Amino acid sequence: MLYGKEHVQRYQETDGAEGHDWNNTTVLLLTTKGRNSGRAYTTPLIYQKHGDDHVIVASKGGDPDDPEWYKNLVANPEVEIQVKGDKFTSRARTATDTERPELWRLMTRTWPDYDEYTKKTNREIPVVVLERIP
């Protein structure tokens, strides 16, 4: 099974032919700029489409701390996305309180473990909307 750096490498080499479909869901590659280092970091993340946007969840498996990629995009919301062979720039933002319930349901339908992760942490797990920049 693909995971981590190997997942990113195979996804990039095959334009997502290997790595986009994963464990009965779909994965995109998110590239953020390190908030301290300025380096590019690429992370494979489960996503779903919502209208023209892509939606991801900053769960870190229910860890008490937000994932590094989320901290990076909060500091610098312009990110690069790859969905299969399509590579583009997006603006990332945390879902509003109004949007969050619908988007959370969308994401838990594709990855039910997100509901389990909420039981492991006191933080509200962020839902992130990726809006493509034309």
From TrEMBL:
GO molecular function, one term: coenzyme F420 binding
UniProt catalytic activity: oxidized coenzyme F420-(gamma-L-Glu)(n) + a quinol + H(+) = reduced coenzyme F420-(gamma-L-Glu)(n) + a quinone
UniProt xrefs under Gene3D superfamilies: Electron Transport, Fmn-binding Protein, Chain A
Short name of any one Pfam family annotated for the protein: F420H2_quin_red
GO CC, any one term: plasma membrane
SUPFAM superfamilies xrefs: FMN-binding split barrel (SSF50475)
Protein family according to the UniProt entry: Belongs to the F420H(2)-dependent quinone reductase family.
Name of the protein described by the UniProt record: Proline iminopeptidase
Taxonomic lineage from the root: Bacteria, Bacillati, Actinomycetota, Actinomycetes, Streptosporangiales
